[in-house]
Design brief:
The complex is a heterodimer of chains A (about 120) and B (about 120).
Chain A (H helix, E strand, L loop, with lengths): L2 E3 L4 E5 L4 E3 L2 E3 L5 E7 L5 E7 L5 E3 L5 E5 L4 E6 L8 E8 L9 E2 L3 E6 L1
Parallel strand pairs in A: 2-12
Antiparallel strand pairs in A: 1-4, 3-9, 5-6, 5-10, 7-8, 8-9, 10-11, 10-12
Chain B lengths: L4 E3 L2 E4 L5 E6 L6 E7 L6 E7 L2 E4 L8 E4 L6 E5 L8 E8 L12 E2 L3 E5 L1
Parallel strand pairs in B: 2-11
Antiparallel strand pairs in B: 1-3, 3-8, 4-5, 4-9, 5-6, 7-8, 9-10, 9-11
Classes of the chains: A mainly beta (about 120), B mainly beta (about 120).
Chain lengths: ~120, ~120
């Protein structure tokens, strides 16, 4: 069965510092991996995805994520945090070539950027 | 339309009442997903359609929950005899992804319907 773990409920970073939001996954076969962001009273917005190819993927708002197959991880990163990055972040996984094509989400990490 | 549209945005139901939540996916999107999201939590998978076929309903919490997508486009999530524990935001998402293929594989989400059962 597919699963996603986001081990940190909250991450606090000073503005201008680099940030990392952690994600590990479990899936049979090759995974599709995603990061979404949710602002208060808003729907989930797609940030970036890993399908195949280069392990480092770049997405919206300066975010990037690194796929590490041996560690089954897909951590979200940004070199320099902005206060406006404060939001709830979700990692997600699917296995579209298996019978489990559904997208499964982690429990979320609240990112707080202090000025 | 330009995005996934859900209606109503807010619904207050009395305990025991039946409710129907509507989702209009992005035109041409093959896959449609329903999720339930409690406050501050991650979306929990409910059910998945590929066109009109409901391929996975393993996340539906009870037989009071029923979803359909009869023409492979608009979908309705119905909850019968609502209970207080059904209070949550119900999210609909659609994607181009079929069982195989690449391209636009990410899911696009609607704003959700906030259901409050009193």
């Amino acid at each position: 069965a597919q699963s996603v773990a986001q081990p940190e409920d909250q991450v606090n970073v000073a503005e201008g510092n680099p940030l990392t939001v952690k994600c590990t996954y479990s899936v049979s076969g090759n995974p599709y991996l995603f990061w979404y962001v949710q602002y208060p009273n808003r729907g989930l917005q797609f940030l970036l995805k890993y399908i195949t190819g280069d392990n480092l993927v770049k997405g919206s708002y300066g975010f990037e994520a690194e796929f590490n197959k041996s560690q089954t991880s897909f951590h979200l990163k940004k070199p320099s945090a902005l206060v406006s990055d404060s939001a709830l972040y979700f990692c997600a996984v699917s296995a579209p070539y298996s019978s489990a094509s559904k997208i499964i989400f982690g429990s979320g990490t609240r990112l707080s950027i202090r000025p | 339309g330009a995005g996934v549209s859900q209606s109503p945005r807010y619904k207050v139901a009395k305990r025991g009442q039946d409710v129907a939540l509507r989702c209009d996916p992005i035109s041409g999107h093959v896959s449609l997903f329903w999720y339930q999201q409690a406050l501050g939590q991650g979306p929990e998978f409910l059910t998945y359609f590929q066109n009109e076929a409901q391929l996975d309903k393993s996340g539906l919490p009870s037989d009071r929950f029923f979803a359909e997508r009869p023409e492979g486009s608009v979908s309705t999530l119905k909850i019968q005899r609502t209970q207080q524990e059904d209070s949550a935001v119900y999210l609909c998402a659609s994607s181009l992804l079929a069982r195989s293929g690449t391209g636009n594989t990410e899911a696009f989400f609607g704003q959700g319907t906030r259901l409050t059962v009193v």
